[in-house]
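Colleagues,

For the teaching module next term, I've prepared a clean inverse folding example: a structure given as C-alpha coordinates, and then the sequence designed for it. I'd like students to try predicting residues themselves before seeing the answer, so please don't circulate the second half yet.
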Protein backbone atom coordinates (compact mmCIF):
# COMPACT_ATOMS: atom_id res chain seq x y z
CA UNK A 1 0.00 0.00 0.00
CA UNK A 2 2.86 2.35 0.79
CA UNK A 3 4.36 1.89 -2.66
CA UNK A 4 1.13 3.13 -4.24
CA UNK A 5 1.30 6.25 -2.09
CA UNK A 6 4.88 6.87 -3.28
CA UNK A 7 3.81 6.52 -6.91
CA UNK A 8 0.89 8.88 -6.29
CA UNK A 9 3.22 11.40 -4.65
CA UNK A 10 5.67 11.21 -7.55
CA UNK A 11 2.83 11.61 -10.05
CA UNK A 12 1.42 14.66 -8.25
CA UNK A 13 4.88 16.17 -8.02
CA UNK A 14 5.32 15.62 -11.76
CA UNK A 15 1.98 17.32 -12.48
CA UNK A 16 2.91 20.27 -10.28
CA UNK A 17 6.34 20.75 -11.89
CA UNK A 18 5.27 20.06 -15.48
CA UNK A 19 4.59 23.76 -16.38
CA UNK A 20 8.11 24.65 -15.20
CA UNK A 21 9.62 21.92 -17.40
CA UNK A 22 7.54 23.05 -20.37
CA UNK A 23 8.64 26.66 -19.88
CA UNK A 24 12.32 25.68 -19.62
CA UNK A 25 12.05 23.49 -22.73
CA UNK A 26 10.42 26.34 -24.67
CA UNK A 27 13.27 28.71 -23.69
CA UNK A 28 15.84 26.13 -24.73
CA UNK A 29 14.18 25.51 -28.12
CA UNK A 30 13.87 29.26 -28.82
CA UNK A 31 17.56 29.71 -28.07
CA UNK A 32 18.49 26.81 -30.35
CA UNK A 33 16.30 28.15 -33.16
CA UNK A 34 17.82 31.64 -32.81
CA UNK A 35 21.34 30.16 -32.99
CA UNK A 36 20.40 28.11 -36.05
CA UNK A 37 18.90 31.04 -37.98
CA UNK A 38 21.71 33.42 -37.02
CA UNK A 39 24.25 30.92 -38.22
CA UNK A 40 22.35 30.38 -41.48
CA UNK A 41 21.74 34.09 -42.14
CA UNK A 42 24.81 35.83 -40.72
CA UNK A 43 27.27 32.96 -40.78
CA UNK A 44 27.76 33.00 -37.04
CA UNK A 45 26.00 31.89 -33.88
CA UNK A 46 23.97 33.96 -31.44
CA UNK A 47 26.80 33.71 -28.91
CA UNK A 48 29.10 35.63 -31.30
CA UNK A 49 26.94 38.75 -31.06
CA UNK A 50 28.43 40.07 -27.87
CA UNK A 51 27.45 43.26 -26.13
CA UNK A 52 30.90 44.71 -26.87
CA UNK A 53 30.12 44.73 -30.60
CA UNK A 54 26.86 46.52 -30.00
CA UNK A 55 28.53 49.06 -27.74
CA UNK A 56 31.07 49.83 -30.48
CA UNK A 57 28.23 50.64 -32.84
CA UNK A 58 28.82 47.74 -35.20
CA UNK A 59 25.60 46.32 -36.54
CA UNK A 60 25.49 42.80 -37.92
CA UNK A 61 26.40 42.68 -41.61
CA UNK A 62 23.34 42.12 -43.77
CA UNK A 63 23.47 40.55 -47.17
CA UNK A 64 22.68 43.22 -49.73
CA UNK A 65 21.47 42.40 -53.18
CA UNK A 66 23.47 43.81 -56.03
CA UNK A 67 21.57 46.49 -57.94
CA UNK A 68 20.56 45.70 -61.47
CA UNK A 69 21.11 49.23 -62.81
CA UNK A 70 23.80 51.74 -61.89
CA UNK A 71 22.98 55.35 -61.06
CA UNK A 72 24.38 56.42 -64.42
CA UNK A 73 22.12 54.10 -66.40
CA UNK A 74 19.04 55.64 -67.96
CA UNK A 75 18.16 59.16 -68.90
CA UNK A 76 15.84 61.90 -67.73
CA UNK A 77 12.61 62.15 -69.69
CA UNK A 78 10.64 65.35 -69.68
CA UNK A 79 6.90 64.85 -69.86
CA UNK A 80 4.38 67.15 -71.39
CA UNK A 81 0.83 67.16 -70.07
CA UNK A 82 -1.84 67.05 -72.77
CA UNK A 83 -5.29 68.25 -71.86
CA UNK A 84 -8.18 66.52 -73.61
CA UNK A 85 -11.72 67.65 -73.12
CA UNK A 86 -14.64 65.23 -73.06
CA UNK A 87 -16.17 66.50 -76.27
CA UNK A 88 -12.96 65.84 -78.21
CA UNK A 89 -13.23 62.53 -79.99
CA UNK A 90 -10.15 60.55 -80.80
CA UNK A 91 -10.40 58.66 -84.06
CA UNK A 92 -8.20 55.68 -84.76
CA UNK A 93 -5.39 55.97 -87.30
CA UNK A 94 -5.32 54.27 -90.70
CA UNK A 95 -3.45 51.17 -89.47
CA UNK A 96 -5.80 50.53 -86.54
CA UNK A 97 -7.77 47.29 -86.77
CA UNK A 98 -10.64 47.04 -84.34
CA UNK A 99 -11.65 43.75 -82.75
CA UNK A 100 -14.89 42.65 -81.25
CA UNK A 101 -14.86 41.92 -77.59
CA UNK A 102 -15.06 38.22 -76.94
CA UNK A 103 -17.45 37.17 -74.22
CA UNK A 104 -17.63 33.49 -73.53
CA UNK A 105 -18.65 33.57 -69.87
CA UNK A 106 -22.13 33.95 -68.53
CA UNK A 107 -22.48 35.99 -65.40
CA UNK A 108 -24.81 34.94 -62.64
CA UNK A 109 -25.34 37.12 -59.62
CA UNK A 110 -24.84 35.38 -56.31
CA UNK A 111 -27.00 36.67 -53.51
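(Answer key — instructors only)
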Amino acid sequence: MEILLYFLLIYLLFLALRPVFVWLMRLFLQHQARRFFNQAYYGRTADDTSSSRRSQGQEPARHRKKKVFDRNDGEYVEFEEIKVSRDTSIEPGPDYVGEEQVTDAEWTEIK
